[in-house]
Write a structure and sequence with these properties.
Elements: H1 4-7, H2 10-19, H3 29-40, H4 51-62, H5 73-85, H6 92-108, H7 115-118, H8 135-138, H9 140-146, H10 148-169, E1 197-199, E2 207-209, E3 212-215
Antiparallel strand pairs: 1-3, 2-3
Helix pairs in contact: 3-10, 4-5, 5-6, 5-10, 6-10, 9-10
Length: about 220
Amino acid sequence: MADNSTYFTTTEIQYIMDAGFPTDYKPSIYKLWEAFESKFGGTVMLGSGNAFTEFLTFIGHVKNISSGSQAANLGALTRAMHLEIANFSTDRINSVNGVSDCLTNRLISNMAANYMSAAVGLNGLNPVRPEYWHSIMRQPIPDAMLNGQVGLDGLVTSYKNAFIMFCNENRIYPWFYGVSGPSAYTRFSSLPTGYNYFNETDGTGRIKIGKFYFRQNF
């Protein structure tokens, strides 16, 4: 059976803790690492190319914080997308993939100038809904740990998607240097363009992806 020593030296474990991994969950670092490797492993080339280095960066973006001002754009978007799927016991990955494409659709439709302005429509980043800045936004790793594999996979996928979305938006060289605009950004699901809103309610003309129903009009 795997444990932290399966993957890390004592020194590496200390690096992870120093990056902000929650002390209460130290014995379970390996569980988040396994999810990270499974869902993000093929994407590390977009960063440093070193999986352990990218894991430390990931921890830095999802570590426990007390206020929104402590979350940079990548961490903020990751937390907000994770919050959207946090109450689902299944199908978190498909759900967050649909949400990611919905945000891109808002850029394509000129509803927002960039991902962070598009993301203010998400509960966790909505300035008029401060009640959503609660423990899941502040402490996403503990929340994911408490929800087992589906929680860990959902958090890592939220981060992976947000990472790629910002790579597109910022034209990260060399992978996205030639991206012409939002219509050419990476897609994560089968959601067509024009579907700019979502919730959990079915209705005429809505498309279901994961647990969400996506619609064209507000």
